[in-house]
Amino acid sequence: MFEMTVSPRFYETDAFGHVNNTVITGWFETGREPLFQLFSQGNEDPASLPLILARVEVDFVAQTYYGQPVTLRAAIERIGNASFVVSQQAWQQGKLVARGKAVQVYFNHDTQASQPLPSHFREALQAHRETLPETFSPA
């Protein structure tokens, strides 16, 4: 499991004082950054990353507020032939506020086609395969 904390910024709030729903998908992408680093293999050029995002879904479970940190969690839920599913959660003050999934595809940008996940990436993903907990306990 990968875990990080973000601090909601004032400009991310809406007229009701809640964190805007569009912000959560951005936070979830930030929470997947350790996976991007795994696939970049030291190459800092984002265009060389052999992944594309094929699907993203978010369930907004509770309101998220400015002024309190949000803990993001991510884990690998499933590994397919050329893709994998990342399960994600956002927690604020011990309460689940959002959960989601992202489907990432191993992709060859030259041929513009997906390719089977190489075994070394498959093994690295397998090391992070787990079910995210439904209760909050600080890491």
TrEMBL record:
An MF annotation (GO) of this entry: fatty acyl-CoA hydrolase activity
Cited InterPro entries: 4-hydroxybenzoyl-CoA_TE, HotDog_dom_sf
SUPFAM superfamilies for the chain: Thioesterase/thiol ester dehydrase-isomerase
Protein family membership: Belongs to the 4-hydroxybenzoyl-CoA thioesterase family.
Keywords: Hydrolase
Record lineage: Bacteria, Pseudomonadati, Pseudomonadota, Gammaproteobacteria, Oceanospirillales
Domain of life: Bacteria
Protein known as: Thioesterase domain-containing protein
